């Protein structure tokens, strides 16, 4: 960080610690992970405990029927990508969908479901990088599911809102598993006994039980009865992918993301694309970001994303260390952006332990309660990730059986000098990489401390000519955007559309600094 640091008041303190830290999208999950660190667990032990607890604490945003993407950084600074997304069913063909009279995949319902990958990601990541027993890291989630998670303001607003009411009309099992719409009150305990029992069975059987054993034998028939195309063969073939992370050099550091089918490459593109000195000029203007330059880079980086963000077997990138020249080449060869909508209900966590091992993790049902398809006897709600595929022969996104769909999940990590320097992640569907970029710029370039950088106002662009801005942005941002031909829409001072960034910085002497976004229910807890 630079010496000239702004000490403007923040809504939350910058948490500092030495023995380890967890920041996640819910206080109960952060507390569960921190407790694992205090028991001697490492960053992955804590991450899996936190992730499993998140699945119970915020069940409308993530759960056992979802997917995950993550990064593991060891104490030497080597970063491994963890792809916990599932493949499309073998029966999911364009011909089958067209025979049903469809011209596009449904946004919700059984035909939007691909293999849920999150449980395998927990289990296989723990086996590869963790030190504790599977039963121990699942224990906090089991306890919370049985005792009930006290409903916070976000949960009350959701369960009493129009979206949930409409979902329960279309998918009545949701109301039976969770709450009757409009009945939630602050502090009410949401108990999930069926999910608790499923977690207990997984603790006894191991993670594979979700895919091949008794747990699968319970939820899969219910899913198929609802019309889901998944078969026992689809589940048995599932595996978590482990690969080198993609990286780009930036600010004397390396920024790492998960390879496609994660959209993380868009973050690297926005950092790696060069524009004749705009980088230095951007850092000097009010707010530390030139929004017109931001938008040019965003459009270029997302054209690269849309050309390469697909199943790893369908695309090939030139290397794992991407340069400005590589991005320039990729941009020249990229096609026009493909319209992609949907998503937004994601949970993230970051962990760094005392030894310097780190995890950046994102998991999701994709949209609120995903597909809406629930398996009542097991407490599982299935995600709707397959809705991102197209019913045509598009080379990147055309529906094919056995392929991992496009993923908005985009955890990130920064390394420097042979060690992890930062773990950072956020929800926010197509805004994830945009929010991450703004926080990285505000912290490393503008010199704000991590909490202040997270709390700075943000902008976001989805499609068309409209750019969304928080009402707190500097006036210069509005003027610059309008001068560049953009329309501007204010979305309030603290908008959930801008994500909920969780981040931990590790200083050279081992001191940890953690920031949690007040836009959502994010919370940092030290070990």
Give an account of the 3D structure.
With 527 residues, this protein is α+β, with helices and mostly antiparallel strands. Helices cover 35% and strands 19% of the residues. The protein is built from 18 helices and 22 strands. The chain has helices spanning 27-38, 43-57, 94-99, 118-129, 134-147, 153-159, 162-170, 172-177, 193-205, 214-225, 232-236, 265-272, 278-284, 291-308, 324-333, 432-445, 450-455, 475-483, and strands spanning 15-17, 20-24, 67-73, 79-84, 149-150, 189-190, 241-244, 246-250, 253-257, 321-322, 345-353, 358-366, 374-375, 380-381, 412-416, 419-425, 459-461, 466-469, 487-490, 502-506, 512-516, 523-526. It has an eight-stranded mixed beta sheet. Strands 7-4-3-12-11-2-22 form a seven-stranded antiparallel beta sheet, covered by helices on one side. Strands 17-18-19 form a three-stranded mixed beta sheet, covered by helices on one side. Helix 2 runs antiparallel to helix 4 and helix 12 (265-272) crosses helix 14 (291-308). The longest helix is centred in the middle third of the chain and has 18 residues, at 291-308. It is globular.
Structure characteristics:
8-stranded mixed sheet, 7-stranded antiparallel sheet, disordered N terminus, globular, 527 residues, alpha+beta
